[in-house]
Write a structure and sequence with these properties.
alpha/beta; Rossmann fold; globular
Amino acid sequence: MDDHAVGRTLGVYGKVVVVAGGGGAKNGIGRATALLYARLGAKTVILDIHQEAAEETAKLINAFAEVPASVWQLDVTHDEQIKPVLAEITQQYGSLDIWAHVAGGHIGSSLIEDIPPAVWRSNLELNLTGVFLCVQAVLPIMKKQRQGKIVLVSSWAGRKIGSTSGADYAAAKAGVVTFTKQLAFEAGPFNINVNAIAPGPTHDSDAERDQKDGRLSKSPIQRFATPEDQARVIVFLTSLWAEIITGVTVDVDGGMNFGWMDYATYLTKHGHPLIEKGFHEG
């Protein structure tokens, strides 16, 4: 089955998909998400504060896509920018079917007593207020259409605590989890599904980092997620196959969220000795 056939099966082929943060870091979740939607035949719109990064994603898409990707520069924390951009998108495409909000990131990583108030506000603004501002502008469009799919991005930090980020980032991402539920409740009667993902550590096959990072040992499947792993779950949550799912945050972390100890220690505590590098016999 080719990509477009898969897109038709999932119900995303031909849909207008907006990926906020679709430029993002090279090989990041935003870019992987935009590329996957485009491969599945969606009409892909890329929003990003970094114009060059967004255009680079569009260039990659336009090398294979039937419908060229569009780019708008947008700072999700500036509400005065959001509605005009959305108005241009809906005027050009006629609808807004899917909103994937990947924009975010953390500034610094400090103990609570050392977090400057300005940094606290910046992290909450980018990772929580930006989500609110964009959704507040997207919702009336989807309500008028009486259909839509929204996927937000929380984090492993929002489910537990920030291990490589601070309490500011963790608090913002925890807020996304509850915001997702509230939004799903309000939007559901208008045939709008709202879900989120909570990515664990996500790398693009950096083997050396895998070896040095002790968190990997807490993954039952013994690998970090890739940006493509995250993108596939985002697409699934906006597909026909997930029509009954709303208000849910999916952990995409290889089981790290419940891995309170490394697998080797777990086996030892359960009376199962390790065999060299293997985890079990036979």
